[in-house]
Amino acid sequence: MKKTLALSLAAALAVMVTACSDGNGNTGPSPVNNTGTNSEASDAAGSFPLSKEKKTLKVLAIQSPYVQDYETNDFTKYYEELTNVHVDWKFAPPQEAQEKLNLALTSGDLPDVIVGFGVSSAQQMVYGQQGIFLPLNDLIDKYGVETKQLFEKYPEVKQAITAPDGSIYALSGIDRNPHTLAPQKMWIYEPWLKKLNLSMPTTTEEFEAVLKAFKTMDPNGNGKKDEIPMSGGIQDNMTNIDSLLMNSFVLHKLTSNELLFDGDGKIGADFTTDGYKEGLDYLRKLYAEGLIDNESFTQNNSQLKAQVENGDPTVGVVASSSFAQFTDVSKDRWKDFVAVPPLKGPSGLQQTPYLYYSNTGGNFLITSSAKEPELAFRWGDALFNSDISLRANIGTENVGWKKPDEGAAGLNGGPATWVRLIGFGTLQNNSWMQTTPYHFSKEMFEGLAADAVSVPRKLYEATVNSYEPYKSTKEQEVPPIFFNEAQAAELTMLQKTIMDYVQESKTRFIIGNLSLDKDWDNYLSTLNGMNLKRYLEIYNEAYNAQYKK
After folding, report:
1. One-character DSSP codes across 448-496
2. For residue 339, what are the contacts with CB-CB under 8 A and spacing of at least 6?
3. How far apart are the first and last CA of the chain?
4. Which one of 127, 318, 338, 379 counts the least CB within 10 Å of its CB?
């Protein structure tokens, strides 16, 4: 009797668990069925095994540093037994991923399947139209059991991964963890607020007053003037000092190259607006008053962590997506940092940059070298199934995860559905740890059972209580866009020149090397000379081709 991926009613009602991410890359379980192997292969969509005879797929992937050995891995054994498909792995180290991908595409030495690279829309278009990446549309229609369910649940994902020619060249990983949808956060050291009898600031003016108190009133109580009111870093743009604060003046979305829709429905840039100029002036004032540390413009995450963790507490405020970027979460200091909600600016603007298109595209592609594209597609489609995704990313029950105790609460206060046993970042040999695409739903994530003082719970509660109430609108967000080969080549040259200049100028305006009164017009003129107009035209042309048919 053949097995299928469809969940039975009993399995759906059972409080099992679904794979999800906690924003630090941690994942957890989901409602599953016990899908098994069968002695006979079936061509029916969603049935196993995929072949009566043992088949081999050549798969190019980015090697996870947290997987001990893919050949002997427990999930590898499980999935091969289930599908009757052996994987011949080819790996790229994370730091060489793009180089290895480019080499494979240009040399002609192609695998059957490419997973986990986030292949850009431009590369999908170029190599798809050359026939190197196969269009998946017909395969989805015939065999896409899980893919079609995801498209039904997230119609915006299908639109975002569909090229202007109508082809889908790659499937997308999907992450709807609430924390990752609002990544631009800021944290304040709560013991200092309590020591100085200060309230959480709610406006940019109140925030400035709090920083001044941190600088002058010895909140760490050591009798030294060693307090750093606010610090940041440059390794991750979420730790830039403007990450949250600029949003009190203009929508400042770091995840989309600071692009946004203007009042005329066209894609524009925040870094040329009056609001951006006002935000720079505010940051310049904070820096001039000694409230922003000079190291914020040069240091990496390790140096930022050293500032925060070294000796007596010395840092009052840090902008960061998560605690792991600026603290050692294996110690205790991170527990005393609490979220600063979006601050109301002088004009009343108070907003959280919010991600409505949180899909990581280009993560499952089939190449022209695949002798059996149907087999390759079915192998990939099944990885989105809840049971299989659970085992692929978390591990087997009672090894990677377990059922919670009766009465345990999930992150949203409802019944918990899973408890994680192997922490993300642990070297293990039980799962593939996000090597392949996955689906993490909001509901799945909220079923996580976590202690009151834990990274997942603090991130979730900060997101829901402090940031979601102020989230930006979907109409403001620039969605994922496909560019043709000519557009991509032109855009690549323009973007680096423009964004490097924007970042350099931002720093110089803040630290006072450039004057907003005297140099702002020259800054805009320089951007025009770098052909910012054409840069935005390309975005608008490609957007219209994909979304305004």
Report:
1. BB--SSSHHHHHHHHIIIIIGGGBPPGGGPPPP----HHHHHHHHHHHH
2. 185, 186, 187, 188, 462, 465, 466, 467
3. 46
4. 338
Give the pLDDT confidence of 165-208 residue by residue, as tens digits: 899 999 998 889 999 999 999 999 999 999 999 999 999 999 99
Instruction: Indicate the SS3 state at residue 19.
Output: strand
From CA 137, how far away is CA 124, in angstroms rounded? Answer: 14
433 is written with which tokens? 């740890």
DSSP 87-134: EEEEEE-GGGHHHHHHHHHHHS---SEEESS---HHHHHHHHHTTSBP
Residue 74 CA to residue 88 CA, distance in Å, equals 16
Specify the pLDDT at position 540. Answer: 97
Give the whole-angstrom CA distance, residue 121 versus residue 116.
14
**pLDDT per residue as tens digits for the range 95-144:** 899 999 999 999 989 999 999 999 988 899 989 999 999 999 999 999 99
> What letters, b where the CB count within 10 A reaches 16 and e where it falls short, cover 55-94?
bebbbbbbbbebbeebeebbbbebbbebbbbebeeebbee
Give the contacts of 406 (CB within 8 A, at least 6 positions apart).
none
Q: Output the CA–CA distances (angstroms, integers) from residue 376 to 139, 365, 396, 505, in the order listed.
A: 10, 9, 24, 48
Q: What is the 3-state secondary structure (H, E, C) of 367-392?
A: ECCCCCHHHHHHHHHHHHCHHHHHHH
Q: Cα 427 to chain center, whole Å?
A: 22
Quote the tokens at residue 266: 């066209």
Mean pLDDT of the chain: 90
Q: Which helix (H) or strand (E) holds 27?
A: strand 27-30
pLDDT single digits (tens) 220-250: 999 999 999 999 999 989 999 999 999 999 9
Among 79-88, 150-159, 435-444, which range has the highest average pLDDT?
A: 79-88
Give Cβ neighbours of residue 501 (< 8 Å, ≥ 6 apart): 526, 527, 530
Q: Cα 67 to chain center, whole Å?
A: 21
For residue 94, which phi and psi values (nearest 5 degrees)? Answer: -50, -40
Integer Cα distance of 233 and 165 in angstroms: 41
User: Are 187 and 318 within 8 A, CB to CB?
Assistant: yes
Q: Specify the pairing of strand 359-366 against strand 113-115.
A: antiparallel
Rounded distance, CA 32 to CA 19, Å?
A: 10
